[in-house]
Design a protein that fits this description.
The protein contains nine helices and 26 strands. By secondary structure, the chain is α/β, with parallel strands linked by helices. It has one domain: Pectate Lyase C-like (3 Solenoid), CATH 2.160.20.10. The strands form three sheets. Strands 2-1-3-6-9-12-15-18-21-23-25-26 form a twelve-stranded parallel β-sheet. The protein has an eight-stranded parallel β-sheet with strand order 4-7-10-13-16-19-22-24, with no helix packed on it. Helix 7 links the parallel strand 25 and strand 26. The chain binds 2-acetamido-2-deoxy-beta-D-glucopyranose (NAG) (11 copies).
């Protein structure tokens, strides 16, 4: 591990000194000053920060005060300017949809930005598709938060490459960040059909001290999306991390609310350039959501299953509780395994009661990586690629120090 942390701190120094985008970044000190509750909530915030206040009965009467997050987002110019939105405590029942390209910070007001449990803001939506009663429409409609340049680019679609996205679709947001916010889709308290809390495509998105909760398909990291999550909590049951893009989860908790499908269900596509699209879970915990449900889950939850054979996911240096199946990952189905020599369903130095070496070998679908095999994926900068060129190192938008 020393080599990884060394390379991360080197990168953060490099980013601060040389990346033009980081010059725009809000320092941690300034961010904390803005998030802290003060008599004038905007005290300590960057100039022109917008305020969202669920409690404000006639918010629009005041300049720069909004009663919903989406109304604040929609008031922003569709350009490359850096913008900030401070959100006061409350439950916001709405879908938030960000299409603008410029850096955008969504900040939750909090007395302790280092503690997820102290988050005061929850954004909630109630929608699902493909259930017994909903009818079927694209998963994109269901999401609580969407960051994508167009609706079509955010759709999941079907088939090996999903819904066609027109070639002239621009990149969406290149530096979206959310701090201390909870995103929930509570359509049903069990897995019945896709019910997204986050949908992001053609965008770079960072989440810090955020929670994402639903039961099925909770997080969609779609086409050409790069997403980084640190110190977050993701609670789900079935295929709750899925997509076509690249997701790095660091120092976070994955909470299993029951077992269904797999934790990860990635669909790599081989129609683009050579890529590192996949989901990487690093230095995190994979555990039953609570102790009441844990005993019934022992040995039953799969780390993942291949949405198609180009699935790539790696759990690295991560704790697994006893809920995990002896085989680790599973094939999609017995008659439709979707496993071939492109499939990378892997672990590197996972540990805890969920790690069973004999079980992994007997199961014959999980790759146990050597250090050499892990190296090409071993840091966010090695897996986040630039739009179109496919070059790696697209990580100036990552906050290494949240
Ligand atoms: C609503 O706005 C008006 C005009 O700015 C102000 O006088 C009034 O106090 C506000 N009411 C509330 C509940 O904020
Ligand atoms: C906005 O920023 C992106 C990414 O840095 C850049 O590619 C694009 O040309 C910029 N657009 C304008 C209008 O400056
Ligand atoms: C936000 O999520 C965390 C983690 O689940 C939880 O402890 C906290 O109470 C939540 N806050 C709100 C306002 O929902
Ligand atoms: C989910 O949202 C879509 C799009 O807005 C809507 O057509 C559908 O009726 C909603 N479904 C439910 C179950 O609310
Ligand atoms: C998001 O907003 C864009 C622009 O207003 C709109 O075209 C798109 O349909 C919206 N997407 C969703 C999922 O609501
Ligand atoms: C979005 O995709 C649908 C289905 O493929 C297509 O009918 C529609 O024309 C597309 N819309 C745009 C704006 O590209
Ligand atoms: C434990 O988690 C399950 C699944 O999310 C939930 O239904 C149940 O209410 C939770 N129990 C407790 C005691 O929190
Ligand atoms: C690419 O994926 C498609 C669909 O899964 C498959 O038919 C095709 O053989 C693959 N091509 C290569 C080179 O793997
Ligand atoms: C993968 O399998 C195909 C045939 O199914 C074979 O042609 C190819 O050489 C294999 N590639 C590797 C890297 O093993
Ligand atoms: C490990 O996996 C094997 C199946 O390959 C199983 O027989 C054994 O009971 C497992 N051990 C534990 C502790 O679950
Ligand atoms: C393991 O899986 C591979 C395909 O990935 C297959 O060729 C091989 O026969 C399997 N081995 C056993 C012992 O089932």
């Amino acid at each position: 591990m020393p080599s990884i942390s060394t390379s991360l701190s080197w990168l953060s120094v490099f980013g601060l000194l040389f990346s033009p985008q980081s010059c725009l970044a809000l320092s941690k000190k300034d961010r904390l000053a803005c998030q802290r509750a003060t008599h004038d909530p905007l005290k300590g915030c960057p100039k022109h920060t917008l305020l969202v206040d669920a409690e404000s009965a006639n918010a629009t009467a005041k300049k720069n005060v909004f009663s919903s997050i989406q109304s604040a987002v929609l008031s922003l110019p569709h350009d490359n300017s850096t913008q900030y939105i401070l959100i006061l405590p409350g439950q916001y029942t709405e879908q938030v949809n960000v299409t603008r390209p410029g850096p955008l910070y969504l900040l939750g007001q909090t007395s302790d930005a280092a503690s997820l449990a102290k988050n005061t803001v929850e954004v909630v939506w109630h929608n699902a598709t493909g259930t017994a009663t909903t009818g079927s429409y694209d998963n994109a409609w269901t999401s609580t938060l969407t960051i994508a340049p167009t609706f079509n680019s955010s759709t999941t679609g079907a088939g090996p490459t999903g819904n066609h996205v027109p070639d002239d679709t621009p990149f969406g947001n290149f530096d979206f960040r959310a701090y201390n916010l909870n995103f929930t889709n509570d359509y049903l308290p069990y897995s019945a059909g896709p019910s997204l809390a986050l949908s992001t495509s053609y965008a770079n998105t960072g989440f810090y001290h955020c929670s994402f909760k639903s039961y099925q398909d909770t997080i969609y990291v779609g086409k050409l999306a790069n997403s980084y999550m640190s110190k977050c909590e993701i609670a789900g049951q079935t295929d709750f991390l899925y997509g076509f893009g690249t997701l790095w989860i660091e120092d976070s908790d994955l909470l299993m609310r029951s077992c269904g499908g797999g934790i990860t269900a990635w669909k790599g596509t081989n129609t683009t350039y050579e890529n590192k699209f996949g989901v990487y879970i690093h230095q995190s915990n994979v555990v039953a959501a609570n102790s009441s449900i844990a005993p019934a889950m022992v040995g039953k939850c799969a780390l993942g299953r291949p949405w198609n054979a180009q699935h790539r996911s790696i759990f690295a240096n991560t704790y697994l509780d006893a809920s995990i199946k002896p085989s680790g990952y599973i094939a999609w189905g017995t008659t439709d395994p979707r496993v071939n020599n492109y499939t990378l369903m892997a672990e590197y130095k996972t540990y805890g009661p969920g790690w069973n070496q004999t079980g992994r070998i007997d199961g014959n679908v999980t790759h146990i990586l050597t250090e050499k095999q892990w190296q090409p994926y071993s840091s966010p900068s090695k897996v986040f690629q630039f739009f179109k060129s496919g070059k790696t190192g697209n990580s100036a938008w990552v906050d290494w120090n949240a």
